[in-house]
Amino acid sequence: MQHWSNSELSKLVSQVQFELENIGVVPGDVVVAWTGNGIETLATMLAANALGAVFSSASLDFGHTAVVDRFKQLKPKVLLTCDGYQYNGKTIDRTDEIIQVTSNLDSLELILVVDQIGTRDSLKSFLKFNEWETLNSNPVNDVKYVRREFNEPAFVLFTSGTTGLPKGIIHRAGGFILKHMMEQRLHCDIKSGDVVFYYTTTGWMMWNWLVSNLMQGATIVLYDGNPLFPDESRIFKLCEENRVTFVGVSAKFIDAVRKSGFHPNKSLNFASIRTLASTGSPLNSDNYIWIHENIKTDLHIGSISGGTDICGCFVGCDPTKEVWAGEIQGPILGQDVDVIDENGKSLRDSPGKEGELINRNSFPTVPLGFIGDDGTKFHEAYFEANKGVWTHGDYASFTSNGGFVIHGRSDATLKPGGVRLGTAEIYRVVESMAQIRESIVVGQKWQDDVRTVLFVVLTAGHVLNDELIKQIKAKIKAELSPRHVPALIIQVTEIPITRSGKIAEIAVRETIEGRPVKNLASLVNPDSLTQYVT
């Protein structure tokens, strides 16, 4: 474990900034990081943003295809990466992947490589790069801050849709500051002197949210690796050792620990923790009760929900109100959140009835747009379904206590474990295989989470046996990430399509979850859905 003071972090940021200025990084240039959740990523982001550059990051478990699909759109000038990482006690070497990624990013003028696992030197025959440690010899000056406009781009976060490449969401500098300051200080009661830990990778919006806590004068805890390795106590011990005051995890993590039989408060002291936040997927009532019984009784459980699209929350916790098990306490300040039925009518007076989550007003982190889009795709993504209001793609309902329950996605986006994945990426990889003619992938509610189910139509002469399933999963894992690997792969003879020629992902998802399919008349082959009945 390493500890960094404010002055030590400022020194490192200054040295990174010197390196960036040395190759001519100016406002508007793009700096990207394909790294773990460590001090190097944090310092590079701070140095780049202070110079007015745009920053974007991807998790190390992303394969070369997923990384190139994202970063190539940005034409980055600088890449920070590392030779590999440790996960579940295993060493994962990424040097071959680095060669493939960098060969596809011809805009790069500087590549910084961190030596994490001792294989960095093997890159020297293939790649010109700077070793991260050489930055220690750079001069130390005051960190330079370039004055920037509120609406200037500061970050690009990626979200994957059902068609095309992952969409680069452009976020404005001022919006990030306002949104995160308000959520952290007012909704989460985070203040100077607090210690904040949120389990996240650099490929999830919660990384941006976590590091923003530096604005509050808080200490942040960066952790890289499996939160359940070597056992279920890992994260809880980390919180005890660092006297964490605010801890954030996924609902899936809480569920896994509960089912393991581990009781954290029997061996550990959580006197410092005031708030436990949960996001990624709905936190059910059983887990609320388990948290109070097995972590701490006088603890604010803050279930929150939002998205990469806004790098923040629509609904979340409120330290001034009661907490009801299984419910999110209320809307985020300044956001006119509503739930509407299929006719656009508010369900505010109909607690428990599911509808579409919308936001009726503007807010600081409405994105500037998508990379390479004239506004058409951006408008279609958020404002087409319900004219004039932001439609987020979540099923939700009001509660009689004034809170919310999030029931899952209303669109075709996958969200296993709370991490948003696009179906288009999976199609590109799977359908490049000679054995597969067509495919359709959906998310299915499963054990208080979502599992990914892939249906495939095979080319003549092939059958879906264990060997082919293994090949499909290996290819997806190598080119995309372990998170993209489906839980189930099932053979079908036909994919349902709409009259406009689009595959009907939502119809398949509704079918496998036992819900009625809306607008069956829009399908060319509605009878094909009988193959998807579980």
Brief descriptors of the model:
3 domains, single chain, alpha/beta, 13 helices, GMP Synthetase, Chain A, domain 3, 534 residues, 25% helix, five-stranded parallel sheet, Rossmann fold
Structural notes for this entry:
It is a single chain. By secondary structure, this protein is of the alpha/beta class. The chain has three domains: 6-148, Rossmann fold (3-Layer(aba) Sandwich), CATH 3.40.50; 172-409, ANL, N-terminal domain (Rossmann fold, 3-Layer(aba) Sandwich); 422-532, GMP Synthetase, Chain A, domain 3 (2-Layer Sandwich), CATH 3.30.300. It has helices at residues 6-22, 39-50, 64-71, 95-102, 173-187, 205-211, 234-241, 251-260, 285-294, 376-382, 423-430, 466-479, 505-512, and strands at residues 30-35, 54-59, 78-82, 84-87, 90-93, 110-114, 130-131, 153-159, 167-172, 195-198, 219-221, 246-250, 275-279, 300-303, 305-307, 312-316, 330-331, 337-340, 355-359, 369-370, 390-398, 404-409, 436-446, 449-458, 488-491. Strands 2-1-3-6-7 form a five-stranded parallel β-sheet, covered by helices on one side. The chain has a five-stranded parallel β-sheet with strand order 11-10-12-13-14. A four-stranded antiparallel β-sheet has the order 18-19-21-22, with no helix packed on it. The chain is globular and about 70 Å long. The model has no long low-confidence stretch (mean pLDDT 93).
